[in-house]
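Give me the fold.
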Amino acid sequence: MNANDIQSAAVLGAGTMGHGIAQVLAMSGIATRLFDVDSAAVDRGIEAIGKNLQKGVEKGKVTAEACDDALAKLSGSNVMSSAVDGVQLVVEAVPEKLELKQQIFEELGQRLRSGVLLATNTSSLPITKIAEVTQAPERVVGMHFFNPVHIMKLVEVVETDHSSDEAVRCAMDLARRMGKEPIRVKDAPGFASSRLGLVIGLEAMRMVESGVASAEDIDKAMTLGYGFPMGPLKLTDLVGLDVRLSIANFLKEELGPGFEPPRILIDKVERGELGKKSGKGFYDWSE
């Protein structure tokens, strides 16, 4: 496995993270197929990539030629067998459900030749359990990207006890090829970023819940006082309150009551206040 030799890839899942990963792969010169079982989601994902690239051109951050080249490298599919046929890399970015990811990786392990790098974008689920169903766990790693993918520099490359040095090195080099800064992390609950970020986010929610300060002022405390690029509550809105609740519940089971989700988070998810994607979370995104 050599990152510079990768010429084709498939991204499984056309949601926010999936289409973002597809964009940066295509911008790296890799022919990329975006897959989702929902063909409308594929269309929305490719449309979103086009809008992101056009904004980059308008701001002078992307050349018109680079925009056209990236779009030419993109294609979509709602048939997984067609999407992964002949590729050298697969990045899975489907919803955070272990059984779903295992089902996908079991099929990938049976379908794809041994030289294909298999990566999951999970933010907290155990990669060892995802990898073990493939019959080739040595070629499975985590590549945890951050939202928005085309802007955020960090990629967590997560290795299990079975990940080969070759696979980990390839993932690290691939992240650099994509213009990212990778860190190498062992497979542990929440890895590094989700575990630390969630602690801050949950405490910020408890502070809103108990009336310490508004969401805006708590976020301002972290951006101006600690240099965070974005406050923990606005970040929660972008990630999705449902996603953060799922991660909190998982880490509570794995690490203990310090990750108990606060009532305010549970209530908002039950009301459908999921953040930016629903128009309301800790902030109003309706406009």
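The chain has a mean pLDDT of 94.
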